[in-house]
Design brief:
Elements: H1 2-23, H2 32-37, E1 48-53, H3 55-59, H4 64-79, E2 86-91, E3 102-107, E4 117-120, H5 126-135
Parallel strand pairs: 1-2
Antiparallel strand pairs: 1-3, 3-4
Amino acid sequence: MKKFLQRIKALLKRILKRSASNSHQPSPLINTRLETSIPTVSPRWESGLVLVCSQCTNERLGSTASEDLENWLKSRLKFEGLWGDFRVVSTSCLGVCPRMGITVVIVSNGSHGNSPCLIVNPRSDRELLYSYIKQNKD
């Protein structure tokens, strides 16, 4: 889990760096000295990373609700040929803890550090969530 959080942090730093370079202002969150010594890669999911909280459902909706949503999103993205552009991953608590629903965060290059945090009903909001993810494609 620690490596996963480090990868997310690195992805967010790259996104912030790109948006900062577009505005010609260096980001205070990026330590350029450290960045030059650590190799970077361009992930396949350049359009977006969809984080699905697994902790929300364990306590309220049943342990398989977030897994079902995650698997449905993966298969839908694969079916429509968008799996390489987007990646769907399960994560532990995102700190939102809705009373009902699953917390989903969509990190994309176009979000400029403002990644939407959505509260999704894992059954009735699937199509709406999928449409929202497709809108974030570069």
